[in-house]
Amino acid sequence: MTEETYSEKIMSRSIDPAALEMLARAEELGFETAWDRLEAMLPQCGFGELGICCRNCNMGPCRISPFEEEGPKVGVCGATADIIVARNLIRMIAGGAAAHSDHGRDIAHTLLLTAEGKGGGYEIKDEAKLKALAAEYGIETEGRSKEEIALDLARAVYAEFGKQEGPIQFTRRAPEKRVALWQKLGVDPRGIDREIVEIMHRTHIGVDNDPVNLILQGIRASISDGWGGSMIATELSDVLFGTPTPIRSRANLGVLKADEVNIVMHGHEPTLSEMIVAAAQDPEMIALAERYGAKGINVVGMCCTGNEVLMRHGIPIAGNFLQQELAVITGAVEAIIVDVQCIMPALGALSGCFHTKLISTSPKAKFPGATHIEFHEEHAYDIAKEIVRTAVENYRFRKPGQVHIPDEKTECMVGFSVEAIVAALGGTLDPLLEAIKSGAIRGIGAVVGCNNPKIQHDYGHVRLLEELIKNDVLIVTTGCNAIAAAKAGLMLPEAAEQAGEGLKGVCQALGIPPVLHMGSCVDISRILVACAAIANALGVDISDLPAAGAAPEWMSEKAVSIGTYVISSGVFTVLGTVPPVLGSPVVTELLTQGANDVIGAVFAVEPDPFKAAKLMIDHIEEKRAALGI
Amino acid sequence: MPVEGPFILVNPERCLGCHTCELACAAAHTEAGTVIGAVLAGERLQPRNHVIQVDSVKISTQCRQCEDAPCVKVCPTGATYRTETYTAVDQRLCIACRLCMMVCPFGAIHMATATVAGRDKRAAFKCDLCVDRPEGPACVEACPTKALSLRYPREVIQQATQVTARQFLEALESQQQLASNP
């Protein structure tokens, strides 16, 4: 089917040809997707959009009239719009920080089990990183086995979650000036769980009713995510599964295969996806697949768990957040295996229309219409094999008439951990610093975040990236933005052709793409580490760097926590969708202007990617001028 | 002289799309009279109005209470009828043939399951201006932004003529001032 035959409605939903093809197919077959559900949801409640409804106690629900001199201006308890918006916003931060940090806790748990010899198939793959982290924690490494070191490290990291008085060790990776600022503001986190709990306490009826004080606690919890829970997830995943190095793969729905058992891994934690990858290579499983008439077992990723195995094993990635339903509609998926976060409950009913099995695995996350095969790290390999077997045995129920796989799959080069970037630069950051100083690279753009059907799928991501590289801004990316970039062909060294002359030269000299894939959404911690290293090398704070962030299609609470820790780390950030804060003039002013004087960075909201790029470039140029480069 | 029937007017500049009017409408047409009461009693909640979005504008839609109502004309059983001031559906007589739905130019009539004399049946639903409700239409009362109001044609005309007449007078006055102070 050629693009011209799609309706205007379908064309308005995505810029990805594979997504468009599947959206047309969905419409033809009468399957509903997130885009249809958003349409049915319109109009969405204006009170909710403005953030001025409060359901925190049962005197409510209360909502504040947004009109001048009319209607209630305070809730039953007397809370103003400013208080309600601030409370709601930091509860979103609590949700996001909890999700990331609980992911980090699961990885720490796996490291602990592995060190104790109880990990059902896990091993310590990156001993150098283990020792480096141990040194950071002051753990003795000389003459000790990696298991002994790992045991001490896992216990020390585990303790970060329940710490009462701080500091969280990894926060000390931030430049000294930044840490001093956090301490002065009283936002240096004391413990990962504590800050999240304190948000829930403060937003209970009748506790903290000062919008600024509330936001400061949101900042503290977000730092405990970015420089705590998320960073723990990243670092310990590297220890267990290996630190990513550049590797080539392919991205988009065309990675599904018509003649093989297709297993889509969707969710976030690499503990599961790593084992599925291993189990799918088990000769017993491959023989079983062949017995059922399949040519093999094709494991592909979706969303961030896909990013994890894409970075470490080159496992192809089928798409980002809004493509999860589209993958099922190909009719070629034997099993979509999910763990936690960003998994649409709609998958259950949709899978029921095909032979596809939705397999839930986490005791924390069950779904309607799913087969639950609970995953426990102690028996990881055996359980992974059972899951793969379930998928393989389902191949015979595939209905050939229902199979429709788009051709699109784009080559990509991924795996740019901080270590890999330094290696690509020849072992030191100096060439990058020189390129920034000379102006060949104007600055660094950190572009991250989700998909959101309120924005044409991938349009916000891809157009912003194209515009930034054209203006010599080197991109570091993670999450669903990274997948959009991979699909758009921006993660190939050849994409340097689309960059400005300066960036093109640097990329060609180093053989790297202009858009660097740094991992999953917890791996934004890698971007923080890179920023800290650059700032330290220049002897400045992160807020002095010619760098800017963006989340063009964000939707999740995790993104709210991310955005907050990114600006709290000193990086100006442009959001592509409006957060629910506009009902409060005080909070809106604080986030978009006032915060600059407090933490040296603010948010801006700009749905148009071209205007967003301009905001970022202007900011980068301002910082360059201040640095005198 | 015929009695003038009122109608519900929506101000799209004030509508936030919160759907409170839909909930109030549905609740007002239950035995319990409240959303939670109806849910607890297992009663159906069925709004007669709908909040929709046109481009970025949110707006509530409901029956215009047409005086020469096509829905009344096409009804083969007399279920849809007009009184002096409003149109309504007697769901006991309705056979859910959808003719009224088809001819309504405002899309203000829809078919749904109704419980009539203890029996579930499909029937037409439309706004009845809450004529049995002493406080007037529930949607108007519930709207948190006062986007909805119950209006009478004469009152609307009077308001409009008052405004333009005042403008005219002001214009005249300023002209006289100009004439006396050149």
Explain this structure:
The complex is a heterodimer of chains A (629) and B (182). Chain A is an alpha/beta fold. Chain A is 49% helix and 10% strand. Chain A folds into three domains: 82-241, Up-down Bundle (Substrate Binding Domain Of Dnak, Chain:A, Domain 2); 253-402, Rossmann fold (3-Layer(aba) Sandwich); 417-627, Rossmann fold (3-Layer(aba) Sandwich), CATH 3.40.50. In chain A, strand 10 (443-447), helix 19 (459-470) and strand 11 form a beta-alpha-beta unit. In chain A, helix 5 runs parallel beside helix 10 (211-241) and helix 11 crosses helix 13 (303-313). Chain A is globular and about 70 Å long. Chain B has three domains: 1-62 and 127-151, 2-Layer Sandwich (Alpha-Beta Plaits); 65-125, Alpha-Beta Plaits (2-Layer Sandwich), CATH 3.30.70.20; 153-182. In chain B, 32% of the residues lie in helices and 21% in strands. Chain B contains six helices and eight strands; from the N terminus they run βααββαββαββαβα. Chain B has a two-stranded antiparallel sheet with strand order 1-8. A two-stranded antiparallel sheet of chain B has the order 2-3. A two-stranded antiparallel ribbon of chain B has the order 4-5. The chains are: A alpha/beta (629), B alpha+beta (182).
